[in-house]
Design goal:
Number of helices of chain A: 0
Radius of gyration of chain A: 13 Å
Oligomer: heterodimer
Distance between the termini of chain B: 34 Å
Helix content of chain A: under 10%
Order of helices and strands of chain B: EEEEEEEEEEE
Number of helices of chain B: 0
Structural class of chain A: mainly beta
Shape of chain B: globular
Largest sheet of chain B: 7 strands, mixed
Order of helices and strands of chain A: EEEEEEEEEEE
Largest interface: A-B, 21 and 20 residues
Shape of chain A: globular
Strand content of chain A: over 45%
Number of strands of chain A: 11
Number of strands of chain B: 11
């Protein structure tokens, strides 16, 4: 069964610190993986997309990695800011089916 | 502004009423979606339309009926509202359904509260 799991469920970090969010999936065949950021009271926004052949991709202070062999992805946030407080959702696209959403990780950055 | 818009943003209503939520996108996308996000923040797909044709219809009570008058609009009508329908409903759109075009652009959400 195609599934997407994320950890931790929630995370609190101090402003300026780094953090890493994890996404594990059991989707096959795999097409791509996206990380979305959802600010409170708003809809999710795509941060980055990872395809099978990509290992690392950066978008400013956000760096996503993908290990297609172990079916794991991570989202690393560098030098966190208060505006990084949000839910981060991992979304995996199987080749021949609709996208599958993970449950999200709720990140709180405190001063 | 190019975007996905939803109306209303907030909807408070009594149990048993019928209500509609409207969604419009001016991105020129072919595919539109309705999601329900519950109190645990999990996004669950309800319906998807591609070029006005229903392509995804998850296990949703038949009190929920989507309608797509054209590619740019996807409305959601809910009959006989129940307490469990309280949630945030998101509309989204994407260029298409293939892997290459599956980035979804979300509306701001409609917070439905059933009393």
């Amino acid at each position: 069964k195609n599934q997407v799991e994320q950890s931790p469920q929630s995370l609190i970090i101090l402003e300026g610190k780094n953090c890493t969010l994890q996404c594990n999936y059991t989707v096959s065949p795999f097409s791509n993986l996206r990380w979305y950021k959802q600010d409170t009271g708003r809809g999710p926004v795509s941060l980055t997309i990872m395809t099978f052949s990509e290992n690392t991709k950066s978008n400013g202070r956000y760096t996503a990695t993908l290990d297609a062999d172990t079916k794991q992805s991570s989202l690393h946030i560098t030098a966190s800011q208060l505006s990084d407080s949000a839910s981060y959702i991992c979304v995996v696209k199987p080749s021949y089916d609709k996208v599958i959403f993970g449950p999200g990780t709720s990140l709180s950055v405190i001063p | 502004d190019t975007a996905v818009s939803q109306t209303p943003k907030y909807l408070v209503t009594q149990m048993g009423n019928d209500k509609s939520i409207k969604c419009e996108q001016n991105l020129g996308h072919d595919t539109m979606y309705w999601y329900k996000q519950d109190s645990k923040k999990f996004l669950k797909i309800m319906f998807s339309y591609n070029n006005k044709e229903l392509i995804i219809n998850e296990t949703v009570p038949n009190r929920f009926s989507p309608k797509s008058p054209d590619k740019a609009h996807l409305n959601l009508h809910i009959n006989s509202l129940e307490l469990g329908d309280s949630a945030v409903y998101f509309c989204a759109s994407s260029l298409g359904t293939s892997s290459r075009y599956n980035e979804q652009f979300f509306g701001p959400g409609t917070r439905l509260t059933v009393l």
